[in-house]
Design a protein that fits this description.
single chain, alpha+beta, Rossmann fold, TATA-Binding Protein, 11 helices, globular
Length: 417
């Protein structure tokens, strides 16, 4: 389908070689699992969607390319890493002839989808930013994917004129699932969305079951956040200026015992910390963190810059954000230590505040429960019900209330063999 790979005769041979190497690496990483996705990634000239970037950057399997920043230098649009794009396309299970809506335009992913749906299919890509829409159109035209329909609109409303869709693939971090996305889905369609729950993002495959959505798969991911009416900002609680911050996503319980009190937590950080060890091996950490995030009554992500970590004020696990259990003026977060004589690590807890011993014990018990009951389990079941659904008819689990949905996250145990 593509002829644009020969537009620049100086780089085309090298680009093709790098593209083949990227496909091989993505196979080794397990991101590519089907020949259809391998063929699409092996065909689309990714460098044409990253003009001005070195070829090695364009074809780095785990490297995103920022395409626009806001006035503060924060990335608000990017060409996602091919690794996560491959994972999401495998999750989508796109077949020839399908009608696909992509939410969040960059051009490259839409071209991959066009390869998968073929000439009988239809690809619509929507973005709220006119600069991104213009850029996507130009890149798609340069790569000979003019059949992709790029629309300027707020994706909160979907694209009703092009519906229904067999697949809705979201390429921006979403805090909620607007009704339009499921309303414009065919009966057996799928929504693949980087979904943020309690500050933790997973790319979730949803299918419709009756009046709600049920997950079929989820994977760890990271995306720039949604803009427009679907945007949702985290609450940032400073514990040591801007250098140590507790990020809180959904509103927490009004129970005074659970409420996040910035002043008390700032004082707690300066208190001597308690350290407790769980006996739980430090692996499968992404799944473990998701378990903690859906079982801690009050929860946030503790993040720290290099200075406080180097001073020993905060553990190194806070560098990228670590799941943190909060209870009033005390908090606890995960850490690790090497197990002597092995190459593995043990999971432990650092806790601060007047109730440090209690919150450390609570966190350790969560670690041990996950290890005992869910380490070898099927993972979480994520269900999104319409907002206002009575709690009495929801399944048991962690209920996360959003604008359009009530999300229930439950953890079935492994079936007895």
């Amino acid at each position: 389908m593509t002829t644009a790979r020969d537009i620049n005769f100086d780089v085309a041979p090298q680009a093709e070689e790098l593209r083949e190497a990227m496909v091989a690496e993505l196979r080794d990483l397990g991101a590519i699992q089907s020949e259809q996705v391998a063929a699409a990634i092996g065909t689309v000239p990714r460098h044409l969607f990253a003009p001005g970037k070195p070829l090695e950057k364009a074809y780095a399997a785990n490297s995103a390319v920022v395409t626009k920043r806001d006035e503060n230098g924060v990335a608000i649009s990017s060409l996602s890493a091919t690794h996560i794009q491959a994972v999401m396309l495998e999750q989508a299970q796109i077949e020839p002839g399908m009608r696909v809506l992509e939410i969040g335009s960059g051009g490259y992913n839409a071209a991959l989808i066009a390869e998968l749906v073929g000439t009988a299919g239809q690809v619509t890509s929507v973005d709220i930013d006119s600069d991104i829409v213009t850029r996507a159109k130009e890149c798609l035209a340069a790569a000979d994917y003019d059949q992709v329909n790029v629309v300027l609109a707020d994706a909160e409303n979907g694209v009703p004129d092009r519906a229904p869709f067999d697949r809705v693939i979201v390429t921006a971090g979403a805090w909620d699932i607007p009704p339009a996305w499921s309303d414009q889905l065919t009966e057996h369609g799928r929504i693949i969305v980087p979904f943020r729950m309690r500050g933790l993002t997973r790319t979730v495959v949803f299918e419709r079951v009756g009046d709600h959505l049920v997950s079929r798969d989820y994977r760890l991911c990271g995306f720039v956040p949604m803009q427009g009416s679907g945007a949702h900002s985290e609450r940032r609680v400073p514990l040591d200026g801007d250098e140590v911050v507790l990020r809180v996503d959904e509103e927490l319980a009004v129970d005074e015992e659970l409420a996040v009190d910035a002043g008390r937590l700032q004082e707690a950080l300066l208190m001597p910390r308690v350290m407790r060890w769980s006996g739980v091996e430090f692996d499968q950490v992404d799944e473990l963190d998701f378990w903690i995030g859906t079982h801690a009554p009050a929860f946030g992500l503790l993040t720290a810059q290099d200075g406080p970590i180097e001073r020993g004020l905060v553990g190194p696990s806070a560098k990228r954000g670590v799941p943190t259990l909060v209870r009033g003026g005390s908090f606890a977060y995960r850490t690790k230590r090497p197990i002597e004589g092995t190459e593995t690590f043990e999971t432990g807890v650092y806790a601060h505040g007047p109730e440090a011993e209690a919150v450390a014990k609570e966190y350790v018990e969560l670690l041990r429960t996950w290890d005992r009951d869910h380490r070898r389990g099927p993972g979480a079941r994520i269900e999104a019900y319409p907002a206002g659904t009575p709690i009495s008819i929801l399944p048991q689990g962690c209920v996360v209330d959003k604008q359009h949905t009530r999300v229930v996250i439950s953890w079935p145990r492994p079936q007895a063999s």
